[in-house]
UniProtKB/TrEMBL annotation:
Residues 1-25 form the signal peptide. InterPro entries: Bact_solute-bd_prot1, SBP. Pfam families: SBP_bac_8 (PF13416). It comes from Paenibacillus glycanilyticus. Keywords: Cell membrane, Lipoprotein, Membrane, Palmitate, Signal. This is Lipoprotein LipO. Residues 32-52 are annotated as: Disordered.
């Protein structure tokens, strides 16, 4: 196997929306800066070739990336094409939703906010009056937005009949898996595991034989503390998604009959020293450092993080090789990865924005077809080539100038972006191998659709999900680490239901009965 560089990606962390959020709705009535807006260019398919000094500088909050937003080449391109200067801030790498909640509650005057999709978080903002209804602005200033984004996508983000966000579509189903050092497998004389029992045996061999010669720092399997539901392993116990079908009804993991079996398995790994003893306090970067420094034999990680891990590991252990563990079969023969459709990001305009009309005009300009294509993949012959409809990046310039382009998108050209995206996933051969392993080489039967990824806005689910996910996640970490015992599960489940689990389940299954 080849060594697999890093485009950091985040899974939005779920936290409780600050109770003071409602205060932000009083900071601005949604009309924005009318003077500045009247000076903005009229919505059209034309783009500006130079910035307009009369236009306001827009302020945007975006997801974490490892480089300065303003210094990256795409920022200059968008400034030239739209005529607007943009001030960029970004959310932190860890616990981004917590920071977002604080900024939203404080009424920070961002004109555009982009975060990884969390329908509960997004709809809670909308219900609390923290966001601007985009429909009138898009009708007036957004012809390119309407052409680029399907009505189906728009409808999926409506809350009480109003549109508050612009989505970026998901272009692949499977993101996370367990990356394992195949050279360690060779050193301990074992094959790639195919079952949970074999996986445990491999980790035991990693611990006993220390193939990385890390001594006391040897870690068979590292994970981060805020993701106790480990992709691939949860699938082996029939729970690949946050809510799974149990006898025809969708059930959250902590209420799933298989939850105790999963906890017993993972807590057993921890008790035997096979899972990182420090996982409870591990941040995303901490876990990755342990693997990329050669101390850990396996890690739960997104395929888009592979390039950075590979670069660092090549320095620490030049002969290192790794790949993803296949879908493991559990004790009852179940297996699978959670597979998503729908959206991976959503962008919205807070009520506290100073320039909402200009923000929509900027978004519209970026979705003009030729501008969006240049944003996504650059210039043909310079950044990419096309052969029979297949887009291939030209390296290294594609990586230098378009590697982070998706972080600048507010909405996507849904008809064409999946084709452009081919170049993005091929920009690093090691990353493509990882992507290919999880998405193309995994059997369709092991890619199990997350039903709620295609659900419409569900009020009780959206209102309660963050709180419930946080409760369940914290509780699961304690169970794995041994500070809670499973004999208290019934009491926790009663609390979970009382805190909104029962109301959410009724609403979810009322919808699911019609969706099936």
């Amino acid at each position: 196997m080849k060594q697999m560089t890093k485009k950091l990606s985040l899974a939005a962390t779920t936290v409780i929306l600050a109770s003071s959020l409602a205060a932000c709705s009083s900071n601005n009535n949604g009309n924005g800066n009318d003077t500045a807006a009247s000076n903005a260019p009229a919505a059209s398919n034309n783009t500006s070739t130079e910035t307009n000094a009369n236009l306001p500088t827009l302020k945007r909050l975006d997801v974490f990336q490892g480089e300065d937003y303003a210094a990256y080449p795409v920022a200059k391109l968008l400034e030239e094409k739209t005529g607007y200067k943009m001030q960029y801030d970004m959310l932190p790498q860890d616990n981004p939703a917590q920071k977002l909640n604080l900024l939203m509650a404080s009424g920070e005057p961002y004109d555009i906010v982009t975060s990884y999709i969390d329908m509960a978080l997004y709809s809670d903002y909308a219900k609390k009056g923290a966001l601007i209804d985009l429909t009138p602005l898009i009708d007036q200033f957004g012809p390119n937005i309407k052409n680029a984004i399907s009505q189906q996508s728009m409808d999926a983000l409506k809350v009480d009949g109003k549109l508050y966000g612009i989505p970026n579509i998901i272009t692949y189903p499977v993101g996370f898996g367990i990356l394992i050092r195949t050279d360690w497998l060779d050193k301990v004389g074992m094959k790639m595991p195919t079952t949970t029992a074999e996986f445990e045996a491999v980790l035991q061999a990693f611990k006993d034989k220390d193939p990385g010669a890390a001594g006391a720092q040897n870690v068979p399997f590292t994970i981060k503390g805020d993701l106790p539901m480990i992709d691939d392993l949860v699938g082996a116990f029939g729970m690949p998604n946050p809510w799974n079908d149990v006898d025809g009804k969708l059930v959250p993991r902590v209420l799933d009959p298989a939850f105790p079996d999963y906890v017993n398995y993972v807590s057993g790994l921890y008790a035997k020293g096979l899972i990182d003893k420090e996982f409870v306090v591990n941040k995303d970067a901490t876990a990755k450092e342990k693997f990329s420094s050669g101390k850990a034999g396996a890690i739960a990680v997104h395929w888009a993080d592979i390039p950075g891990i590979a670069d660092a590991l090549a320095k620490a252990a030049p002969d290192a090789k790794f790949t993803y563990v296949p879908a493991l079969k559990g004790p009852n023969g179940k297996s699978g990865f959670g597979a998503n459709q729908g959206f991976d990001r959503v962008s919205f305009i807070p009520k506290s924005a100073k320039n909402p009309e200009d923000a929509v005009k900027w978004i519209n300009a970026t979705l003009e077809p030729t501008t969006f294509k240049e944003l996504a993949v650059g210039v043909e012959g310079t950044h990419y080539t096309v052969d029979n409809g297949s887009y291939t990046p030209i390296l290294p310039i594609f990586n230098d100038e378009r590697n982070l382009a998706n972080n600048y998108m507010v909405g996507t050209d849904e008809a064409n972006y999946p084709q452009y995206w081919q170049a993005r996933v091929r920009k690093n051969p090691i990353m493509f191998e990882a992507f290919d392993t999880l998405n193309n080489k995994t059997a369709d039967s092991d890619k199990i659709l997350n039903k709620l990824s295609v659900a419409p806005y569900l009020e009780n689910y959206s209102k309660n999900n963050m709180k419930l996910e946080t409760m369940a996640g914290d509780y699961t970490v304690k169970l794995i680490a041994g500070s809670e015992k499973l004999d208290g599960l019934g009491d926790f489940q009663k609390k979970f239901n009382a805190e909104g689990g029962e109301a959410s389940a009724k609403e979810v299954n009322d919808w699911y009965a019609t969706a099936k």
